[in-house]
Amino acid sequence: DLPISCTLIPYSRNQSPPYKALSYTWGDASNKVPIRVNDSTFEVTKNLYAALEHIREDTSAVTLWIDAICINQLDDSEKTEQVKMMREIYDSSEHARAWLGLAEDGTDHALEELNRIG
């Protein structure tokens, strides 16, 4: 498998290219793995890493908005401002992907039941 590699490009809200938003459970914040962002090592939760592995496209780039990467998690004022814009960020995306985590015992049955009840 190729390593996860991203390019972080800042855009103004009214001039961003089409993008997909990723909604996911952070998982254990102390359980992190490295990815590459702008040719530097960047630590993400193991659950985000698993999501990126599952949604990446092998032959082309995909533009994603991911809070843990796009928001400076060390800057409380930036986090506050970005959280206020979350609805707009998700509404403006081409679509949002939801990632709940890797399958575990009983997951398939739960999804079958959800499909059954609609």
Supply database-style keywords.
118 residues; alpha/beta; three-stranded mixed β-sheet; three-stranded parallel β-sheet; 6 strands; 22% strand
Strand-helix topology:
Layout: E1 5-6, E2 20-24, E3 32-37, E4 40-45, H1 46-55, E5 64-65, H2 67-70, H3 76-84, H4 86-92, E6 95-99, H5 107-117
Parallel strand pairs: 1-3, 2-5, 2-6
Antiparallel strand pairs: 3-4
Written overview of the protein:
This protein is of the alpha/beta class and 118 residues long. It has helices at residues 46-55, 67-70, 76-84, 86-92, 107-117; strands at 5-6, 20-24, 32-37, 40-45, 64-65, 95-99. It has a 3-stranded mixed β-sheet. The protein has a 3-stranded parallel β-sheet with strand order 5-2-6, with helices on both faces. The longest helix has 11 residues, at 107-117. The protein is globular. The chain starts with a strand and ends with a helix.
Percent helix, as a range, is 25-40%
SSE pattern: EEEEHEHHHEH
Mean pLDDT: 89
What is the strand content? 15-25%
Counting copies of identical and different chains, the oligomeric state is: single chain
What's the alpha carbon Rg, rounded to whole Å? Answer: 16 Å
Count of individual helical segments: 5
Strand order of the largest sheet: 1-3-4
